[in-house]
Amino acid sequence: MRILVTGAAGFLGSHLARYLLKQGHSVIGIDNFITGSIDNIQDLFRKKDFEFIKYDVTNHLHIPGKLDAVLHFASPASPIDYLKFPIPTLKVGALGTHKALGLAKAKKAIFMIASTSEVYGDPLINPQHESYWGNVNPIGPRGVYDEAKRYAEAMTMAYHRYHKMQVRILRIFNTYGPNMRLKDGRAVPNFMMQALNGKPLTVYGDGAQTRSLCYVSDLIDGIYRLLVSRENNPVNLGNPHEISLLELAETIKRLTGSKSKIIFKPLPQDDPKMRRPDISRAKKLLKWHPKVSLEDGLKKTIAYFTARAGTAAKPARPKKFK
Ligand code: UDP
Fold first, then answer.
1. Whose CA is nearest to atom 23 of ligand 1?
2. pLDDT (tens digit, 9 = 90+) per residue, 134-170?
3. The domain that contains 12 carries what CATH number?
4. Is 176 labeled as catalytic in the residue annotation?
5. How many structural domains are present in the chain?
6. Which domain, by its residues, includes 117?
7. pTM, 2 dp
């Protein structure tokens, strides 16, 4: 297939582009580098099947030649980025999705939208099944992301129903791994950088809120299975292993061998109290389930952060980690 990936220089986009190339497909990557980084795709420029365009996908998209799939992964995805880039976040989910859908329609290509567990907001049920409509504050600080993704899902279903297009809607739960930015602001990179640098680990609230963390290779495997399936309805992808944020901070502290303290900071507004995917649909439809345990995934991620942060030479060097 010849596949367009928007947000190709981002955390997930870069893993996805690399995976698709490995499967023998041609990839055109697009990114405007608001939150993506050229470092994530540097090695791909040598590959003959990889093309890259620096572009803002909220503008009209023109791609010469055939396309078999358009995968819309461009978007800021960390809560601190929603505060920094509220309008680009809304625009890429709304206008960007519309442009990417229009392109997919013109090319008779499959369209995939990277949606999110944030469509469930601060959920009132746990775990979250695809049939749950969510509990979102539209005008809160996270609303710019949550509502843009909800609009993106609505627009995608409208194109499916009205234009009879093949669409894929994946609801991605918290995912972590190499290629996350060191200063991304999300819990895993924050705790890792703090632990590796001997700084206090900042747990927001009392740390009783939960998340379920999926290692990136598992997620990419699920995304590919969904792409080549015939499923047009939303599918949750994530790891159902749910832990509290305090437990996550303690685990990262232990795995890095860090002597850092754990301190508590105020909980950000509308921070979901719990989050765990119900993956029964993905299991049944895609024969998919996550395989990488939290400890194994965190160890691989710590190795990446250690190398990137250059902490290896510092006294805070993790003992248990090569
Ligand atoms: N969090 C934390 N300390 C940090 C960063 C995040 O305790 O330094 C908490 C945050 O309040 C939330 C959870 O970790 O409850 C996950 O936050 P993240 O930003 O990773 O993603 P979210 O799931 O909220 O989108």
1. 174
2. 999 999 999 999 999 999 999 999 999 999 999 999 9
3. 3.40.50.720
4. no
5. 1
6. 2-175+214-237
7. 0.94
